[in-house]
Amino acid sequence: MVRFVTNTTKESKQDLLERLKKLEFDISEDEIFTSLTAARNLVEQKQVRPMLLVDDRALPDFKGIQTSDPNAVVIGLAPEHFHYQILNQAFRLLLDGAPLIAIHKARYYKRKDGLALGPGPFVTALEYATDTKATVVGKPEKTFFLEALRGTGCEPEETVMIGDDCRDDVGGAQNAGMRGILVKTGKYRAADEDKINPAPYLTCESFPHAVDHILQHLL
């Protein structure tokens, strides 16, 4: 049983599915669980009208959600929206009592031109300015990993998470009761494995190495 879990807010689940299929992944939409899905679920549960600070390509995942006259703030990775006027609008909504929903709080992410600021610093700025605390729905939240497992018939202790982010992927998964394998690709930085406690179950050079370990030692 495989699940692809991601904090990406740069594209909708459908766009992500198409991109993975172009890379020749044999994958169906129900095998993908995103933090956008988790955020939409929370918005519907709270019955709020969000100001959506997300990439325009992620908006299809919020289709049908009422956003006029917002009374909540949902923030993901949205570089084109992270400027003073928009952030100040969000700030004022929060001061009026609107809840702050963070799709995730990653410190940074990997782009083709190098590392770049993630949504975490902007979420933290709004928290600091309004003396409030965001509800975080994506990795590394325990509820995110458990929700991703729902419907698989698998328990956390029967599950392995493979990722390149020591805190959000590996640390979050291990806090949920899973084994975590850190791969030294993507956004990995030297000595990342020393930044979490407990340390990763395993650190591998690449994703194929992690898969080989699972096939040889865990099945």
From TrEMBL:
Xref: CDD domains: HAD_PPase
GO MF annotation list: metal ion binding; phosphatase activity
Protein's UniProt keywords contain Amino-acid biosynthesis: no
Keywords carried by this UniProt record: Magnesium, Metal-binding
GO cellular component terms attached to this protein's record: cytoplasm
Cofactor dependence: Mg(2+)
Any matching Pfam family: Hydrolase_6
Family as reported in the entry's similarity comment: Belongs to the HAD-like hydrolase superfamily.
Name by which UniProt lists this protein: Haloacid dehalogenase-like hydrolase domain-containing protein 2
Organism per entry: Bos mutus
